[in-house]
Amino acid sequence: xxxxxxxxxxxxxxxxxxxxxxxxxxxxxxxxxxxxxxxxxxxxxxxxxxxxxxxxxxxxxxxxxxxxxxxxxxxxxxxxxxxxxxxxxxxxxxxxxxxxxxxxxxxxxxxxxxxxxxxxxxxxxxxxxxxxxxxxxxxxxxx
Length: 143
Fold this sequence. Notes:
Helix content: 40-55%
Number of strands: 5
């Protein structure tokens, strides 16, 4: 299992959603939760893939802490999703396409990187970017 494997799972999950965002949470090299964007389906502007997967896993664990977990996302977490990662204490964020790259292909984004959100927080979250970037961007271009 490597980052590309988990990002492939996020890409597959993204195809099920209202927008091409998929998220996978991993612990000890094992997938523990997956989710996709359901903003339109649920009429909930906060139902981003990352929020959905975090809600699902913390409810299952009955614990708001995700320390020791990694989240894989097709697109860089927006400020709301990055903040949710901070509040849960997630240890690593891995994403495919950056906010800047999504803006460049006319995807609506708030131009604040997840690294900026983390830098202003009280957490030290590792960020790995560009995993399967071309595949992720292609998914957004098709939407």
